[in-house]
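Final report, section 2: Outcomes. Of the targets proposed, Ubiquitin carboxyl-terminal hydrolase is the one most frequently requested by collaborating groups, and we therefore present its record in full.
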Amino acid sequence: MSGGWTTIESDAGVFTHLIEKLGVKDVQFDELITLEPDELRQLGKIYGVIFLFKYPTGEARSDTPKDGSFDQDAANNLFFAAQTIQNACGTQALLSVLLNKDGEVDIGKDLREFKEFSGDFPPEFRGETLSNSDLIREVHNSFARSSPFVDETQRTATEDDDVYHFIAYTSINNKLYELDGLQLAPISHGACTIDEFPDKIIPVLQRRISRYPATEIRFNLLACVQDLRIRARELGDTETLEAEEQKRTEWLWENALRRHNFVGFVGELLKGVVKDKLSQGNGAYDKWIEDSKAKTKKRAEERQKQGISGDDV
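The predicted structure is given below as tokens.
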């Protein structure tokens, strides 16, 4: 392989612009705040969901899933790729939805060629083909946060690290499937038409979340849906259309910020602030330092009261 994969955020703007750069048309991601079928249903045409959760490191892979059942035949009859490399699971999850919706969704020339090329491979070879795709890897890496301190392509997780994992759920051939490249095969959760998906997926997600302590709140759920602007135009809903256009503008700005390294700028800014404080005399400088320490301590205490700690993805 000619290069590594970096971590990307579980963010609707990141995922939407990532698939657009891969050539997918008229599809977007939207973050779900609650586990309510109606919230999912109101998004219109739904292709699947991407679920992010803290991965239980050290847990041995079982021949029997904790929920649902392995569908070994489906591993060859739909697009399912084994995960063969670290940090690629976010892009792999969204492709697990979209490549199984070819026909409903315009996935574009490049992804269609990739699917046709790897379609007859077993899951392990599909995973290797995905990991070695220069196009998919370069697009994926273009959405990584800029950092001068850590090279995520070389970093190895330790037992003390919080490790997060993306998986996909979607309805294929009237069955609800869980597509997780770390599992032996697609996991079937029973009969499920596309229309039934909002009602069938929520109990599955609730059961998964219930396996964690009640204090664990670091989950994220993104819905893969038809571009919401399409329905707004069809209905003449100018308010929703304007809101969605504004959302796209904000996503572009946020994605641009992710790619920029602000360390040099912040360093120069701090130099200017310190120089200004020193020019006012040591008394002003010392007071500024003490005030800053007090504010930092207060914020830490407030975060602790709210139960916010550690890093989140």
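The chain has two domains: 12-259, 265-305.
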